[in-house]
């Protein structure tokens, strides 16, 4: 039997409600054809013939593995190195201030929707350059999508992805593939070893035993409805040091979400306690 080329409104709502419960991501009606296209491929791979069969499989309480696959398929993971580069200049300034302050300890940064890792490695390159090495700082990347986390851990990217990395950082922290690895580059192990990645759902973040100096929460709030945006901001603030900084995407405003957040530049907030 041929799989239909559109998803019915009823089936779209079932997927939308399931994804919302699971991740907080809200797919509005404009996302219907996107959902249809992404699920069709999976349905074919599983040799199923209808959206109904797939949804029955997805909603089965024991289908945890398929549920994770569906999250991986339905999240949008666009990212690139040194995206919104003003944030990296801001990070440099913060480190310079931190280095000269009396209480400077381990400087820690969380890339809270890290996708395939380009954001976390851009942060790590900035820190390594400022600290002249691999000591005194740490970077953690997290995402709800396990497939992007695996890509991030591999630290290997197509050569075109390096275009926005500043020349000196590219030279110091990246290595061009040769022979069978032609067309790819990897993050040098000295740097990638300082960056860890794990799965984490921002609707329910747990597990950190310490707080961060800076949290990058960029280009993820756009997927949530207002009360959930506020919830996510509140969730991540639990892990921000007093006096630490929260950075959001330039198209995302969190103005008025929390009285303790003081905007100091567009999309950069200081956490005052
Ligand atoms: C567009 S990417 C942004 C990547 C990067 N922060 C940047 O600005 O380039 C959004 C990421 O948010 C992740 N995401 C969506 N909902 C999430 C949730 N509830 N918890 C954790 N990550 C989530 C997606 O899997 C995706 O990788």
Please describe what this structure looks like.
With 273 residues, this protein is α/β, with parallel strands linked by helices. It is 40% helix and 19% strand. It has ten helices and ten strands. A seven-stranded mixed sheet has the order 6-2-1-7-8-10-9, with helices on both faces. Strands 3-5-4 form a three-stranded antiparallel sheet. Strand 4 (174-176) and strand 5 form a beta hairpin. The protein is globular and about 65 Å long. S-adenosylmethionine is lined by residues 23-25, 75-79, 83, 113, 115, 119, 143-145, 148, 201-203, 218-220, 223, 249. Pfam families: CheR, CheR_N. It catalyses: L-glutamyl-[protein] + S-adenosyl-L-methionine = [protein]-L-glutamate 5-O-methyl ester + S-adenosyl-L-homocysteine. Residues 1-273 form the CheR-type methyltransferase domain.
